[in-house]
Every structure is written in C-alpha cells, then in structure tokens.
Amino acid sequence: MENWITYIAECAFCLALLYLPFWGLLRKDTFFQFNRYALLAITALSFILPLISIPEITTPLAENEILSIQLDDINVIVNGKVGSENISWQMFLSIVYLSGVVACLLYKMYDLIRLARFIPRGCLWTHQENGIHIHCHVHDIVPFSWMNHIVISEKDYEENGHNILLHEQAHIACCHSWDVLWLSLVEVLQWFNPFIYLLANDIKEIHEYEADRYVLQHNGNTQAYQMLILKKAVGNSLIPLANSFSQSHVRKRIKMMSRKQSSSGKRCKWLYLLPVSAAYIGAFAQPEYIYITAPKAAEPNTTQQQQPTKSEETALQPTICMPASGKATIAYSNTAPKRLPKEIARIE
Description:
The chain is of the alpha/beta class. Helices cover 57% and strands 12% of the residues. It has helices at 2-25, 32-48, 63-78, 84-118, 154-173, 176-189, 194-218, 222-232, 250-258, 273-284, 303-306, 310-314, 342-347, and strands at 53-57, 123-129, 132-137, 144-146, 149-153, 243-244, 286-290, 317-321, 329-333. It has a five-stranded mixed beta sheet with strand order 2-3-5-4-6. Strands 1-7 form a two-stranded parallel ribbon. It has a two-stranded antiparallel ribbon with strand order 8-9. Helix 5 packs across helix 7 (194-218), helix 6 (176-189) packs antiparallel against helix 7 (194-218) and helix 7 crosses helix 9. The longest helix is centred in the N-terminal third of the chain and has 35 residues, at 84-118.
C-alpha cells in the first residue's frame, strides 16, 4: 500500500518538475506541433521516471550480517515500530485518493455519454465527406468536433460554414481528440495535482493555434477570420471534452496569429528535459541494492584426521583393560570400527 501511494506522489512531483520550465520558457513560441508532442511526452515521463531504479552494488557482506539485517526487519514488524498509527494514515490516504479517482472517472464518463447523445439529437441532416461526418443542427449551438464528427448549426453553416469547417477539420486531421482522451486519463490518476490542469489548458490552447494556422494557410484573409473568432466568442461549449470553435483563449489566439514565427533554434530549449530528468533520477529514483556475500574462509582440511579410511575401519582396534592388579593390558578387537585415540596410540 505504501509503495503505490509513494509512486503516485512521485508521479505528481515529476510532472510539476518537468512542466514548470515549459511554462516559463516556451509557452509563447510558435512551433505548436513540437510543443504539443513535448507536453504529451512530459505526461508520459511523469509515470515512467519514478519506476526507474539505479543498480547499486554494496560492499561485501558476510552471511551473518545479512541475517542480522533480516532479523532487524522482522523485529521492526514484531515490536510494532510500523504500528497501527502509520497503517491508519496509509489507509486514510488510500481512501481519499481512490474516492477522488472514482469521482473524476465518473465525471469524465458522464461527459462522454452526454457527448455521444448530443451529436445526433436535433440533427437536421448529416453529410459525409472524406471520412468526416458533418451534423447540421437546428439549434443555435457552438460548433465543435469530436473524433471524425463535426457539429454545426444551420445558421453557422450558411453564413461562415467554410472557415468553421476548415477549423474543425484541422482538429480531426491532427487527432486532437486523442490528446483529450489521454489527458482525461492523466487527470483521473492525478486529480489532486494542479499542474496537470495547467498542462491540459496549455495543450488545448495549442490545439486552437494549430487549427487557426490551418485555416489561414487555406484562407489568407486573416482579418475576416479574426472577426469571426470574436463574433463566435460569445458562446461557450456545452461539452468540455469536445474541440469547440469558441474557446476561452480568443485574445491569445488573435495575438498568436500576428506573432512572428519563432526561430527553429529555440526548440533547443526543450533540451532542458535531459538534465531535469537526470537530476530527478539521481535524486529520487529508488536504488536497487545488489548484495554481494563475502566468500567463506577456507577451513583447515581435517577430513583425513576425522574420517577413517576403509583400511582403518577394518583394522584391529585396541582397547585398554584395567584389571584389579592395576597393570594395564591392551586387547585388540575388529568389531568396533573406531579410530585410535591419541592417548592409546602413545601407549601402544
């Protein structure tokens, strides 16, 4: 129990450690796709780095020292040093964490079900083009996309259908919905970590920057497109998981369209991940101890002195007889396969 609680805490700390330099150095750069992949890599590294262990070969230990270490561990448990108080705290933290996971998971599943039911509801007509399903709704809703589905109102389709469909097609072509699903899973596992929500917000901003750039590449009228964004900024998406045309990053999106393209050399700033990851592994990775037992000292070869040979076993064995006269005599017998004591050998 203690191990996996520690692992979850280390994952949260690792994600914060890797994300903070991006927040301070790279948020305003214009290489959107590269930043997007790097942020997704940070979320994956936050789960991988805490699992890395560093092999460490210890100084040779004798068998009795290893036995004493094991006995000390047993005494800790028997004597109650890991007592009921620590166990109760671990149980409390486990219950709180699992309760948050279940609540967050149910909320995400509710959004998915609501999204799946909302797409066909109130649909006037559906059109399929290049594998993309376009659903035209009668209600005045904010356009959005999910996987290969685009939902748009009849009014928007007639007035600004070309630019809106280009924007949503960019979300589908870049597979932004899969990013949202992955981030939703990370949010479920790290619901207590505020940095995962900041990171998810940055990725959603990057999604909009990518889609806006795609529209401007196919329709060069930047000013008209910016006016469309301002016009559609009034509404908010009813489905948080969907890629909505009307996001809350309108001001940042307009500023990013006018920003000068960042030089490709600035991508080297992402190399900060290497020293930060190495520092985390060196400071917090769990060491994997490899114990080497010291070889036993060679014992004196007393086998020949202690084990009688076959010829000795069959030889006549002397015995001492002490009669009443007090004079010792030596008798020989071949029934006792015993080795001669040193005293008897001297008497003989």
